[in-house]
Design a protein that fits this description.
heterodimer, A: about 375 residues, alpha/beta, Rossmann fold, 8-stranded mixed β-sheet, 12 strands, globular, B: about 300 residues, mainly alpha, MetI-like fold, 12 helices, about 70% helix, about 0% strand, elongated
Chain lengths: ~375, ~300
């Protein structure tokens, strides 16, 4: 059996139990995703990429979705945006309820496709992973930021460019007015990501989906972008869905965390609970895998890794999907039936039948 | 460029860099490309000659000099006269007007129609794509000239109908090219990002995908231009294009066939066709080199 190194204090000191400001259940949610299931039609039949995922997003709240590549976190965000590749990916069941600016609720799954462009970029905006390729190389950054303003506010070119300059200044780009005429190739990766953020925020969306916005950036630039996110959070009521595989980033920005594995939510809770008292063996493994420079474990020169690989969507274990990689797995219990997502007293939830016995032996 | 970036945010003295669009850069690159530059220069020269034909041509192209049938090149007629005593140089100069007209109209026409078909086919996909592409395949199955002859057979001979025929013949090539480009472009990150920003399908096609595809279309258009010129000359040669007495290079070659001794009647119009085709191909090569590198970034 593999033991998880104790890595609980990988959580930065900035994370405190008091920082659950957006946990206040009093504020009505902006987005409620209920039992979302996304399927892809492939040559080898249908594949369930996202399996019964549910969560809510409240104003000024940041929900982080963590997991390895292929766990369904990006597909979840694309489903919310209605950007699943037509013809292959589709929402098979579930609902995505969005509270519109008007106050009315819309189910984005049932909304006619022709109405989605009105919501995208205006009420829900998205930032992508690759700033190097997510900007159109043939248009100036000014025109690209102005596009959303033009599309949703019907602004004239001069007015839209004025707004674009304002947004560039807000995301910390020096000399914003001169930068309006720059082409993406003239900017560095960090600057391009700032431009992407400016584009996404130009219509003041109520929800921002950030799909690995820092992954492609240098560590120092990452820190700057995260700092930018934090300051934007502080200055608005915007809710953020932050998708990443980087727990360090989650610790910095998120209030609540969804841990996904093989298309399912395996654990959900406040950032403090998840990072300081992880219950699911997968979450514990993820946290243990964060490289530590400051304090190598005794006699352990290597990084901790979770053994095995994420199962292919077609070959998932029938019961607990994490069982083949789990250090606590027990034949007869873990492979008996698919584990349900169990609600926890602290408001979180967990998908592991053995979590109580694992918890009593912390990091054993 | 990179030095500006390295200073990063917060640095106020970053010099405002001169921004050039990708197409602007490609044009500069074209001007540095030897063959492309010479092709462009020749075409510009020829188009100026065509425009200024009334000023440059020594005689009217239809004036008949009764005393000079089949006259060899001389100081009076630099490139000689034809079988009815018309000045060959003047006819070549005026013939350039016909050639440019044919190239411009048919290439622009087939670019517009072909690109629209290819764009819709590639973007919408599915059954529509299937139907459109089968039609295109059917058209591509015919040799160009045969298809053009078929269209002329329906419409009747004449310059306008020849241009329509050449346009139709060129549509499938552009449709195929654009469709393939759109298929690869529609899932590019920046296209998805534009959709995430709320751009409609039409806006994405026109504003985001088309500029990306246009470079390849321009290259292909310059190459199809030379093919259009040859098709026009062939149709005129067969007597199905421009009708006499309007001068056209292909038509001049037809008459020259019967007068083997009057070499100037065939060599000079043939050379004109050859030079223009070469110039268009050189331009196409230059454009490809200039645009490929820029657009693949």
């Amino acid at each position: 059996m593999l033991a998880y190194p104790n890595n609980a204090d990988a959580v930065p000191a900035t994370v405190t139990d008091a920082e659950g400001r957006a946990d206040a259940a009093a504020t009505p949610p902006l987005l409620r995703v209920q039992d979302l299931r996304v399927e892809f039609a492939t040559d080898r039949g249908r594949i369930i990429a996202v399996d019964d995922v549910s969560f809510t997003l409240r104003p000024a709240q940041t929900v982080g979705i963590v997991g390895e590549s292929g766990c369904g976190k990006s597909v979840t965000s694309l489903a919310i945006m209605g950007l699943l590749a037509a013809g292959t990916g589709r929402v098979a069941s579930g609902e995505i309820m969005l509270r519109r600016r008007s106050g009315a609720w819309s189910d984005l799954v049932k909304l006619p496709r022709t109405q989605l462009p009105d919501i995208r970029g205006d009420e829900i905006a998205m930032i992508f992973q690759e700033p190097m390729t997510s900007l159109n190389p043939l248009h100036t950054v000014g025109d690209q930021i102005a596009e959303a303003v033009f599309l949703h506010r019907g602004a004239g070119r001069a007015e839209a460019l004025e707004r674009a300059a304002e947004m560039l200044a807000r995301v910390g780009i020096p000399q914003p007015r001169q930068r309006l005429g720059a082409y993406p190739h003239e900017l560095s990766g960090g600057m391009r990501q700032r431009v992407m953020i400016a584009m996404a925020l130009s219509c003041e969306p109520s929800i921002l989906i950030a799909d690995e916005p820092t992954t492609a950036l240098d560590v120092t630039i990452q820190a700057q972008i995260i700092e930018l996110f934090r300051s934007l959070q502080d200055s608005s009521q915007m809710a953020t869905l932050f998708i990443t595989h980087d727990l360090g980033v989650i610790a910095e920005v998120a209030h609540r965390v969804l841990v996904m594995y093989a298309g399912q939510v395996v654990e959900e809770g406040s950032v403090v609970e998840i990072l300081k008292r992880p219950k699911h063996p997968y979450t514990r493994g993820l946290i243990a895998s964060v490289p530590r420079l400051d304090r190598p474990e005794r006699g352990q020169a290597r990084f901790f890794t979770i053994p095995g690989q994420i199962p292919e969507p077609g070959r998932r274990p029938p019961a607990c999907r994490f069982m083949p990689r789990c250090a606590h797995a027990e034949v007869g219990i873990c492979d008996a039936a698919p584990p349900p997502l169990e609600a926890l007293p602290d408001g979180g939830s967990i998908r592991c039948v053995k979590w109580r016995s694992i918890e009593t032996a912390p990091h054993a | 460029m990179s030095s500006v970036i390295a200073r990063g945010p917060g640095d106020a003295d970053a010099s405002p860099s001169q921004s050039i669009s990708v197409y602007g850069q490609a044009f500069r690159k074209l001007l540095r490309h030897k063959l492309g530059r010479s092709g462009l220069a020749v075409l510009v020269f020829m188009s100026l000659v065509a425009i200024a034909a009334p000023l440059l041509a020594p005689y009217d192209p239809t004036t008949v000099f009764y005393e000079d049938f089949l006259a060899a090149p001389s100081w009076r007629h630099w490139l000689g006269t034809d079988d009815v005593g018309r000045d060959v140089l003047s006819r070549i100069i005026y013939g350039a007007q016909v050639s440019f007209q044919v190239i411009t109209v048919s290439v622009v026409g087939s670019v517009i129609v072909g690109s629209a078909v290819g764009m819709i086919s590639g973007y919408v996909g599915g059954r529509l794509d299937h139907v459109l592409m089968r039609i295109v395949d059917g058209m591509l199955a015919f040799p160009m000239l045969v298809l053009a002859l078929g269209v002329i057979a329906i419409l009747g001979p004449g310059l306008t109908n020849a241009m329509i025929a050449i346009t139709i013949v060129n549509i499938p090539g552009f449709a195929r090219l654009v469709r393939g480009q759109v298929l690869s472009a529609r899932n590019l990150d920046f296209v998805v990002a534009a959709r995430a920003l709320g751009a409609s399908d039409v806006r994405i096609m026109v504003h985001h995908i088309w500029p990306k595809v246009a470079g390849n279309v321009i290259v292909y258009a310059s190459l199809r231009g030379s093919a259009a010129l040859i098709t026009e000359a062939s149709l005129a040669f067969l007597g199905l294009g421009v009708q006499p007495p309007t001068p056209s290079w292909g038509g001049m070659l037809t008459t020259s066939m019967q007068y083997w001794n009057a070499w100037w009647m065939s060599v000079f119009p043939g050379a004109a066709i050859c030079i223009m085709v070469l110039a268009l191909n050189f331009l196409g090569d230059g454009l490809r080199d200039a645009l490929d590198a820029r657009l693949s970034e």
